[in-house]
Amino acid sequence: MVSDMAVVSDVSQAAGAPRQLSDGSAAPLCDASHLSVSARLGRLQFHRSGKFRILQFADIQDGPHVNKDTVSLIAAACDSARPDIVIFSGNQIAGYDPAYAGTFINRPWAANWKESSLSEQERQRSMEETSSLVRSSIAQFLQPLIDRDIPFAVTYGTHDFQCGLNTAALDAIYREFPGCLNPKAVVADLRDPEPVPAQGMDRQHVYACEPGTFALTVSDTEGNDTLGIMLVDSGTYALGGGYGSPSLDALEFMRGFAHQSPAKSIVFQNIPVPQYYELLRETAPTRAHAVRGYRAFDHAYYEIDPDKTLPDSYLGEGISCPDKDSGEFDIMASSHGYCAISAGHDHRNGFAGEYRGILMVANPTCGFGSYGPAPQKRAGRLFEFDIRHPYEPRIQLLEFGQIVGRPSSRKAYSFGPSYVPSYGRRAYDLLGRHTGWKKAVQFIRDIFSRSSRENGGEKGSGK
């Protein structure tokens, strides 16, 4: 089982007065004014301390006017985590927002009935208006990264395309912003990696497949590939109902990259694979906090299995995976070329555990423009890799209530508090905020927890 460990930030602070950021906050003091060590080095690379950090944001899912609490969370998480790279794992754009009504597409194979009645000139004008609105939305949630010189990569979900722009058009807009690592090529070629488009990252290469599906390599201090970062467009909707899967090209790309790369990779995508259900256990529908499975799994009710998941895992809704298994997880597990997969999509889920040697991570929404857990539980996910064991990342949710405080608005669409089972194992703070008092309290809790297990106390009772 992959475990979390407490660490202290390894990015030293430079002396001097803090600069002012566009979001109104003071920029943290850091090396060469970069929060990303990799940005300063010109490539994704483990630090001299042996650490490498990825910060993931799932399901911003907002319209042209991004909720300011979402932007505050992104900024605070970047300041707290000091990531080498930020991953946006899909559903950044709420394509169903009324602002995109003129170009809205419900399904990839459907037509916009309103657009079909327009002239070519009117259709072009509508697309330009949508592009402008999407560009404005992207600019708002990217601004904290731009201010802090943090590179980023993007893939797509089930709502981005609904605004009427396909993933190639969205990719082109993202590449207009500094720090974007999404490649221009749309033809898979594992033999010929291309330079990333981001200025200042001239030492970094990327393997391209299709918009939203590509691989980045992370090197050690000697330039040897030590870790891979695979972004996958996990699809949208299936013709027969339910959610889609990665394209055949994407699956073949994953298989080929695993065989070619000397290092294992972590996968980031929007839709979870069916194997996420392996981290749950069936339970009675009358049990408190029982959650019914989704579609192919709706014959049973589920809850978090504490024996298979990490501390602080919680389940707020059924895992909305495809009805049919595309074979993606089997590619990951059987090729021995992958160490983890991290998905979003289900806004109220936040859990992680290992199955067949693969760390599987589910992430709640970081956005305040759609449904989700209580506002204080919306979060980004931090991954910290250690060069000594690069395929066993330490992970932590950076929750709004912990790193920002109270939300500025009560308009966030949320449900009741999510169920968090009781665990015998500890949850650690990757940000290293351990005061003497907190350590003493945790020590006492550990003693009582150990005593409870030895006396046959029930795990997962929630009591």
Written description of the protein model:
It comes from Scardovia wiggsiae F0424. Helix content is 22%, strand content 19%. It has 463 residues and is of the alpha/beta class. It has one domain (31-432): Metallo-dependent phosphatases (Purple Acid Phosphatase, chain A, domain 2, 4-Layer Sandwich), CATH 3.60.21.10. The protein has an 8-stranded mixed beta sheet.
Give a nutshell description of this structure.
The chain has 463 residues and is an alpha/beta fold.
As a whole number of angstroms, the C-alpha radius of gyration is 22 Å
Number of strands: 16
Return the average pLDDT rounded to an integer.
Answer: 86
Main sheet overview: 8 strands, mixed
Distance between the termini: 25 Å
Q: How helix-rich are the residues, as a percent range?
A: 10-25%
CATH class: Alpha Beta
Globally, the shape reads globular
Provide the spatial order of strands within the biggest beta sheet: 4-5-6-7-8-12-14-13
Name the CATH homologous superfamily. Answer: Metallo-dependent phosphatases
Instruction: Report the order of strands and helices.
Output: HEHEHHEHEEEEHEEEEHEEEEEHH
